[in-house]
Design a protein that fits this description.
alpha/beta; Rossmann fold; six-stranded mixed sheet; 10 helices; binds adenosine-5'-triphosphate
């Protein structure tokens, strides 16, 4: 197997006086989708934000392509090749869809081929290109948030619960776009509570509880093992 694209080694993160990550270690294999699962409050969002440099770990190491990125700023980490779709979507409501996309492109001008691909995946963004992002529906805002990450070709995408609160038709659109992103060779680390989406997209699984990793393995093994599913599903994952 090739070297992992991302490795966390005994990463510990505190938020204020609280110990949130208690020594998190796992690998994200290169190419494919790794699902980060676990019950509410397990530490999934904190893990993604720590990788992105939005929280500083006080111990441990985070390696991207074998080189340490812990201690770097979020913009340095983005430039090293990580795209991030945050849980709160991170879009600018007062700016148009176009301006949101332009700001996400490193040079300010999106690559025409990638823009064409984004419009194919999310036609609504073309329709509302000149509208303020704040006027979009919840599903369209989520599409914009994913599109902002997709506008640059990255080695790794961190995606935090993209299906949250969305209608099934929009979830299906997002799932198609993410499958396409994977088919282009990207590596993806994704938090997802909707198990049918996680099952459809995921190749690898990392399960957290209480700030620690409690299971890692192949999605195929998790799918095939009902008792393991029950043990891990007991962590309150939703069956859609
Ligand atoms: N800004 C903060 N201040 C204090 N505690 C926080 C903060 N952010 C997160 N926490 C705590 O850290 C723990 C992990 O939260 P986190 O959001 O990482 O979990 P999660 O697994 O992503 O949960 P969910 O599925 O509900 O989004 C929780 O106990 C949460 O209350």
């Amino acid at each position: 197997m090739s070297d992992p694209i991302l490795s966390l080694r005994d990463v510990k993160t505190d938020i204020a006086q609280y110990h949130i990550l208690h020594g998190v270690s796992f690998d994200v294999p290169r190419g494919g989708v790794t699902m980060l699962l676990g019950r509410n409050g397990a530490g999934k969002t904190t893990t993604l934000r720590t990788i992105m440099g939005l929280w500083k770990p006080h111990a441990g190491e985070i390696l991207l392509d074998g080189a340490a990125i812990n201690g770097q700023t979020p913009s340095q980490i983005a430039r090293r090749g990580i795209g991030f779709v945050p849980e709160d979507m991170g879009i600018f409501s007062d700016l148009t869809v176009e301006e949101n996309i332009r700001l996400a492109a490193l040079t300010g001008a999106p690559n025409p081929e990638r823009l064409h691909w984004i419009f194919g995946a999310f036609p609504a963004l073309k329709t509302f290109w000149h509208s303020a992002a704040g006027t979009l529906s919840g599903g369209q805002k989520q599409m914009l948030s994913v599109a902002r990450a997709m506008v640059e070709e990255r080695e790794l995408y961190l995606i935090d619960e993209p299906s949250k609160g969305l209608a099934p038709a929009i979830v299906a659109t997002l799932a198609r776009a993410l499958k396409d992103l994977k088919a282009r060779g990207a590596s993806i680390l994704m938090v997802e509570q909707n198990f049918s989406l996680a099952r459809a997209l995921g190749d690898h699984v990392v399960v957290m509880d209480d700030g620690k990793i409690i299971w890692t393995g192949a999605m195929a093994d998790l799918k095939a093992d009902a008792s393991l599913q029950e043990r891990l599903m007991g962590l309150k994952m939703e069956h859609a």
